[in-house]
Write a structure and sequence with these properties.
Order of helices and strands: EHEEEEEHEEEEEEHEHEEHEEE
Structural class: alpha+beta
Helix content: 25-40%
Shape: elongated
Radius of gyration: 51 Å
Largest sheet: 9 strands, antiparallel
Distance between the termini: 35 Å
Strand content: over 45%
Number of strands: 18
Amino acid sequence: MKKKSINKSNRRILLIISLTAVSLSVFVLINTIFKNKYINKNESVLSYDHGVLVNYSVNLVPNNIYEKNVLGEGNVYLTDFVDRINTSLFYNFKGDKVVDIKGECEVIAVVEGFLSNDKNSKSLWSRRFTLQPKTDFSFSGEGGEFRGELPINIKSYNALLQQADKTFSMNFIGKLTVIWNINIEGSSSEGKFRENLAPKMELPLNEKYFQITSNLSKQKEGNLEKEVRVINPKFYYFIIMSSCGILSGLLLALYLLFFTLPKKGEKPSAEKAYKILKSCGDKLVALRDDSVDGSEVIIRVMSMEDLIKVSEYLDKPIFYKHSSDIKNITYFYIVEGRKIYAYYII
């Protein structure tokens, strides 16, 4: 099979490129296999959701006005007719694996005194009460629940606000906030976690009537994560790309080494002719046909510099026969009568 000739410089550059591609691809392949095959990733090993809901109803004192002794949620309540507020709590937990849950529920009340109903108004005083001390509960499995009931007597808190008005000789705007603090700790074969939910109820104090504003429903999702080692999603991509780089580089290098030959460089005469044309262009005259018929006396000079000296001495131009192929330009000359002063490149 005849080998293809390629420019020597281009062949060398292509060989360098192919070998560089092989080297880089080998480096990427080794680095991928031994260093980047695995990555650390957080994966969910346990998912769960839990929530709490507090419902309430208002018990009335015996009276001849209301047909019912109990009013439901969302009404307007006359303070003098209210006996107590009954609350019931329902907490539930559900997970996708077996979990041991240990929890506690504490109910607190906070009474505050303000100077105005403005939202930005700060309380001048507050007092905290424990309505229900911490109550423990526990269950095990993929789910569980906890229930609790608590009556709230607002008369005592109204009395506290009236006492504060008398003590400070001021008319405070009072507010009662009841908070159910639920804290749980869960443990499973995958690890441990902690959560908190805190629904609350708010109502004004020492008013002729009131409404209950609340955020008594809380729902929360959670998950337990662990750091695990998994195969890098780009692992196979890097393996394929680096393997292709190695194969392509090797094939190109083998082709250049065994199926191509460096093209022989241009003859020295062509290089000399090119340099002369480039450096002495303003002193040269290109002829379509050679003006020498062979009868002249030819005087050969040793170099182009010598021919230029003769040209300057005789004040004559330097001729050469034009050719589209620079390799065919082999001599330059000066015509002086029947004498030819010539410089031959070869």
